[in-house]
């Protein structure tokens, strides 16, 4: 075990000798006087390198301040109040039932973060981004997922979760899922809709005149299947999810004018009967990461039976590289699964490929939809 004094003393030694060692691009081996642990100074070639590294650490460490500021503004409906004609500190504070002094500081911070503008003293206006995405009455509102503190609380317990290996809450269980996901999918629908439209174009290439049966597993709002129905009247969608979530799916299908092309299959994806050779396309839209390896393997085996010959599984998710050295986002999102699910994770292409082969879905490849957005396609013979 490395003693605490080792960490303190080694840090002190590092700063004391940085001009004679670290800044010249080499490192010397030393021993901690307390525990005789070997260590090396990190190599820093210039003072500018050192400052850039410290600034990077500082930006990441204090990243919570900007996220908490924006979440608080969403929870207090600050952008909505301004959209309704409340432009002064006093008006916003009264509408939000909050302290004028505190609201003043919050509004100024939002100006600095470029979500509001202040062209004259004590007069705040929305910027296009906040007007479009952060006002509750906007059809493109994305704040719903942060109207409560579920995400914040989960991540605040990361240290405890890492020690115990147990999540602080399990959103993959039906009761919690039916509370949690309606807030989440209202935001994700708008965030995903552009990419979903581009994916639909790819999936429908050469098939516009073909009748297609699609199943959307754990469909949420139906964001990944609705564009298929919009772009092709020959598409029929079976939307599968928990019963209360499907109520939300129905509202989105109606809003997009495709409800006549939708059927609904309520239940838990772990137990629901998917039938035999019924579907041309099965969509797994950001669901494998919350299910985890064991459940997903079983699901792939069920899909192998449920798909028609030449049927395809489409996996929309976040994929780290095969060495799990990057990109950063899917690796960090694996921590999000750690704090929110019992078995969730993010998985590499090679892991998916092997699972599909084991499920007798042998043709597996990555399809680039647009730059920085690729999906996995697995096709039965």
Automatic annotation (TrEMBL):
One of the record's GO molecular function terms: protein dimerization activity
Active-site residues (renumbered): 289 (proton acceptor)
O-methyltransferase C-terminal domain sequence ranges: 213-358
SUPFAM superfamilies xrefs: S-adenosyl-L-methionine-dependent methyltransferases (SSF53335), Winged helix' DNA-binding domain (SSF46785)
Signal peptide as annotated in the record: none
Highest taxon of source: Eukaryota
Keyword Mitochondrion: no
Keyword Transferase belongs to the record: yes
Cross-referenced PROSITE patterns: SAM_OMT_II
Name of one Pfam family that matches: Methyltransf_2
Keyword annotations: Methyltransferase, S-adenosyl-L-methionine, Transferase
Classification via Gene3D superfamilies: Vaccinia Virus protein VP39, Winged helix-like DNA-binding domain superfamily/Winged helix DNA-binding domain
PANTHER family: O-METHYLTRANSFERASE CICE, PUTATIVE (AFU_ORTHOLOGUE AFUA_4G14580)-RELATED
Name the record gives this protein: O-methyltransferase
């Amino acid at each position: 075990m490395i003693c605490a004094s080792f960490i303190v003393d080694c840090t002190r030694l590092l700063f004391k000798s940085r001009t004679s060692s670290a800044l010249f691009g080499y490192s010397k081996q030393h021993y901690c006087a307390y525990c005789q642990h070997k260590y090396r100074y990190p190599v820093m070639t210039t003072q500018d390198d050192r400052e850039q590294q410290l600034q990077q650490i500082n930006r990441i460490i204090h990243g919570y301040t900007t996220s908490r500021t924006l979440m608080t503004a969403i929870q207090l409906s600050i952008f909505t109040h301004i959209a309704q004609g409340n432009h002064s500190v006093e008006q916003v504070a009264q509408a939000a039932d909050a302290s004028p002094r505190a609201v003043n500081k919050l509004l100024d911070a939002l100006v600095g973060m470029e979500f509001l503008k202040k062209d004259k003293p004590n007069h705040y206006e929305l910027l296009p981004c906040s007007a479009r995405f952060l006002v509750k009455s906007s059809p493109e509102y994305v704040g719903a997922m942060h109207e409560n503190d579920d995400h914040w609380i989960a991540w605040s317990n990361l240290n405890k979760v890492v020690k115990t290996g147990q999540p602080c809450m399990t959103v993959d269980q039906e009761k919690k899922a039916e509370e949690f996901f309606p807030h989440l999918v209202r935001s994700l629908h708008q965030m995903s809709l552009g990419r979903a439209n581009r994916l639909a174009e790819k999936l429908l290439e050469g098939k516009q005149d073909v009748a297609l049966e699609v199943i959307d597993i754990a469909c949420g709002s139906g964001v990944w299947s609705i564009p298929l129905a919009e772009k092709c009247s020959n598409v029929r969608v079976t939307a599968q999810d928990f019963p209360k979530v499907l109520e939300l799916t129905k509202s989105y299908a109606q809003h997009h004018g495709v409800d006549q092309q939708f059927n609904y299959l309520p239940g838990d994806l772990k137990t629901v009967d998917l039938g035999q050779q019924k579907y041309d396309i099965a969509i797994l839209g950001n669901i494998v990461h919350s299910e985890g390896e064991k459940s997903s393997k079983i699901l792939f085996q069920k899909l192998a039976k449920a798909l028609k010959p030449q049927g395809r599984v489409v996996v929309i998710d976040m994929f780290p590289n095969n060495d799990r050295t990057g990109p950063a986002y899917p690796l960090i999102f694996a921590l999000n699964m750690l704090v929110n699910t019992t078995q969730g994770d993010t998985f590499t292409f090679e892991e998916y490929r092997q699972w599909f082969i084991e499920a007798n879905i042998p043709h597996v490849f990555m399809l680039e939809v647009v730059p920085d957005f690729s999906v996995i396609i697995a096709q039965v013979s």
